[in-house]
Structure prediction request, 210 residues.
Amino acid sequence: MTKKSKSSAQWLNDHEKDEYVLRARREGYRSRASYKLLEIDEKFGLLRPGTVVVDLGAAPGGWTQIAVKKCGPKGFVVGLDLLDIDPLEGAVLIKGDFTEEKVLDELTAVLEDRTVDLVISDMAPNLSGMKETDQPRAIYLTELALDFACSTLRPGGALLMKCFEGSGLDELRGDIRNSFKQLSNFKPKASRGKSREIYVLGRQFEGSRA
Ligand SMILES: C[S@@+](CC[C@H](N)C(=O)[O-])C[C@H]1O[C@@H](n2cnc3c(N)ncnc32)[C@H](O)[C@@H]1O
Prediction:
């Protein structure tokens, strides 16, 4: 077995035993990531009945499921991903690359004239394990999500993004502070201990000053 296939086998083995993977299967969630959003929401109270939510990097749909459930029939939830997402009642789903203009146009068209209360992004590039290439790609996605949030959020709205500790993150936090009154960093229990993943939340959107 090569070193790479050995580590993939180890990952699969750990994944199969992971408490959140087992819980998600039992409770009907599409991914273990659902528990991250549930914990974040429990702490910060982002998802309420009637909330208009854009979920970026939504596949397979674990966060979208939570958003639909919490925002109810008066809410509006759009999930977008590069990958197919199985239909999910109560959500509008878009397949496409968020970095592409035409996909952004599609998202804007779906929103019609709604103002967005909350943008959530769990987008992550395919990680190669090499920080020098992974980190700039991850930062790029978060910068785009921040730009999108700044052009669609209502005043007082919020932006939650998956980020990775490392180069460029402090600058990103500075950019978030320029447009949001409150900034919080949060590592949910379901976020794997070894990972550099951290969720950054901007609340009380004040309008873009960038
Ligand atoms: C960690 S997964 C999201 C899990 C999801 N929040 C859930 O609860 O099921 C990250 C997702 O980001 C998506 N992604 C990465 N880059 C993207 C891009 N440029 N446009 C759209 N989606 C992207 C990936 O395809 C992947 O499905």
